[in-house]
Amino acid sequence: MADNTASRVTREQILQEAVEAAAQAKKLAIEAERYAHSFDHHPKVARYAAAGATWAETARSWAAIAAALPATDDADGEVG
């Protein structure tokens, strides 16, 4: 039987991934908005918006994974 120790992550690590993905989505949304105000940069708006939406979906996915995991009470905080 394979040792799955290396693949174990804590719920807090998963939530941190969600936070980082949400921050990236916010950054890209801000850039899309900034480019939307400049006619010369309109072609960039859709690309930045799409990338931001992808990061937002990633954040939602990480958050959903964290929500589905049981809370941990053990010393190392690992789940799985």
Care to describe what's here?
Strands 1-2 form a two-stranded antiparallel ribbon. It has helices at residues 11-36, 42-68, and strands spanning 9-10, 78-79. The chain is mainly α and 80 residues long. The two termini are 15 Å apart. The protein is built from two helices and two strands; from the N terminus they run E-H-H-E.
Could you outline the blueprint of secondary structure elements for this entry?
Elements: E1 9-10, H1 11-36, H2 42-68, E2 78-79
Antiparallel strand pairs: 1-2
How far from one another are the termini? Answer: 15 Å
β-strand amount: 5-15%
Major sheet details: 2 strands, antiparallel
Strand segment count: 2
Order of helices and strands: EHHE
List low-confidence stretches.
Answer: none
Outline, from the CA principal axes?
rod-shaped
Strand order of the largest sheet: 1-2
Q: Helix proportion of residues, in percent?
A: 55-70%
**What is the radius of gyration computed over CA atoms, rounded to a whole number of angstroms?**
18 Å
Q: What structural class do you assign from the helix and strand content?
A: mainly alpha
Which whole number gives the mean pLDDT?
87
Count of runs of 4 or more consecutive helical residues? 2
Brief synopsis:
This protein is mostly helical. The protein has helices at 11-36, 42-68; strands at residues 9-10, 78-79. The protein is 66% helix and 5% strand.
Please name the defining characteristics of this protein:
rod-shaped, mainly alpha, two-stranded antiparallel ribbon, 5% strand, 2 helices, 66% helix, single chain, 80 residues
